[in-house]
Write a structure and sequence with these properties.
Two copies of one chain form a homodimer. By secondary structure, chain A is an alpha/beta fold. Chain A has two domains: about 240 residues, 3-Layer(aba) Sandwich (Aspartate Aminotransferase, domain 2); about 100 residues, Aspartate Aminotransferase, domain 1 (Alpha-Beta Complex). In chain A, strands 2-10-9-8-5-3-4 form a seven-stranded mixed sheet, sandwiched between helices. In chain A, strand 3, helix 4 and strand 4 form a beta-alpha-beta unit. In chain A, helix 2 packs across helix 6 and helix 7 runs parallel beside helix 9. The longest helix of chain A is centred in the C-terminal third of the chain and has 22 residues. The first copy, chain A, is globular. At the A-B interface, helix 1, helix 3 and helix 6 of A face helix 1, helix 3 and helix 6 of B.
Chain lengths: ~350, ~350
Amino acid sequence: MRVYNFSAGPAMLPIEALTVAQSELTDWKGSGMSVLEVSHRGKDFVACAAETEQLMRDVLSVPDNYKVLFLQGGASGQFDAIPLNLTAVGDRVNFINTGQWSAKAIKAAKAQGLDVSVIADQAASGYTDTPAADSLVIDPSAAYVHYTPNETIGGVEFGYVPNTGEVPLVADFSSTILSRPINVADYGLIYAGAQKNMGPSGLCVAIVRDDLLGKARPGTPSIWNYAEMAAADSMLNTPPTFGVYLLGLILKWVADLGGLPAMAERNRAKAEALYGYIDASSYYSNPVAADSRSWMNVPFLQANADLDKAFVAEAAAAGMTNLAGHRSVGGMRASIYNAMPAEGVQALIDFMTDFERRNG
Amino acid sequence: MRVYNFSAGPAMLPIEALTVAQSELTDWKGSGMSVLEVSHRGKDFVACAAETEQLMRDVLSVPDNYKVLFLQGGASGQFDAIPLNLTAVGDRVNFINTGQWSAKAIKAAKAQGLDVSVIADQAASGYTDTPAADSLVIDPSAAYVHYTPNETIGGVEFGYVPNTGEVPLVADFSSTILSRPINVADYGLIYAGAQKNMGPSGLCVAIVRDDLLGKARPGTPSIWNYAEMAAADSMLNTPPTFGVYLLGLILKWVADLGGLPAMAERNRAKAEALYGYIDASSYYSNPVAADSRSWMNVPFLQANADLDKAFVAEAAAAGMTNLAGHRSVGGMRASIYNAMPAEGVQALIDFMTDFERRNG
């Protein structure tokens, strides 16, 4: 019995990919070994990693002048690794602050000695919106501009890509990668923890434009040095092999369903259904500005907040798990990543309707 | 059909643990979710991580004044993280160099600005032995002494624990942890990548004495800051959840078999059988000093090195995989970690006998 799992991450994965992983967990491709047990330097795993990278390139249409790196330490690790790779101490960088993940990236950049200029901060709205595209003033001397295309906690997603001119744009795509097509060439660096749309925690993917390689500070840990990792095909050290393998299975699932255009249609429809229901309700509400609502993470409140625990518990009993809102936000949150089917969102809407009828 | 897998890492895992992981990969504990899909902050996974930590403490008899940390980035990450956590730039540290993994740790310590004094270097023997215990002269001003209890490539293992007096002893236990009892109190810091005796790659365990916490340099990446990670129960960021879960299953397997005393007996018997066979042979040889032979990694040569590829290929066809020696050493290497049963070692000996009969 599988449930509809609305966890913000680690999150629901495609059952099609999980079933393949399960079937071969003790005997991968007839080798008599698990993929967990084979050397990363052996030809079978090297081929697996190369196939995963190629699928990533194909699905995201990654241009040839970008490296795809498989790293460890998650987006939180990259908060430190990015300054170490792209800047010297004292360099000016620009940040857009749209919520808690932006703020963590800013804190780490400051700790790495950068001159951080926050060019937009959505504190006035309680971090429920994104800045107007034409309000952004980029410092042309900045080493890069960093933003968070989707804030997992606030449920805030950019409806546009900031235009930073010649200044490299760096983006934490952890909770939105693979959810819709993007133009990789708009970015200098894209990074994302795997545990929402790509697979298990412990794998982090970085997509880096070639001209940003080779600028690392002395003392940058080797396993986070983009140039060293690129030169070693992400195998300077032992990679998180199971994560790379599972990412490959998930990318095949995405490709089989029609790639990112199909994912976008699927995710748009799910988001429209849920936001449409919430907006039509006088009992439920979502605080986020209409043009900044996340397709992936939908926080919502009910009129009687005293019933939040009951809502979450009754939903779980009905086969819809992990709907509690983030502790800093309260209420509920439905994370509806790629693997959540439309049927799961409809089941949630039906439950919300019933819950309101009984309690509203 | 399972094979005997002699890979140096990622390596053979206990089929008992793999089978449990397989059986619940799409439905963990009746939750309707995979362990890969649940939030690390949810009560089920928090309990899983706490249970894994407690098993680690019980199996290794970890004293109360040590923290057990679940990290990412492997031992290679720790090569940088250790200097960042335990020293200031310019501090004196002592290293013992017994081979390639020692050398990598030394290189990283130098890159982090340390005054590295190598107090023993086994270059004269071609890194086929360990220094005499009474030959080690520790610098009392050193921030720590680092050594590699088992060199995975050279197959060299210390038969004793260096006595460093008041200077903290730091040890890379990647390829020997859980293979026999150790006295954790002899060490200031123990660290180990999981992918030999503990589980999948992508998880790294550190066991740190309390008085070594809180000395990190400014700018130490948060996810590698021992004090910050200890304060956050290793969940400052999303941990590699599947690795923590699988480590728990493997620790249960170790405990069920009788813990580390039983593992030591099992590993001693395997090593004695294989080294005994090699020593009695005039066709096969092992270059390592008798008192420094690894219980985990057994490199060996045959008289006719032209037949190495044939040996490895024919062994694989007979169900014994990954016997090629490291490219820097040549010949063959049999890694016989905890999960390798005595039957696997006997099968290898039988094959070696037959191969020599046909080719010797």
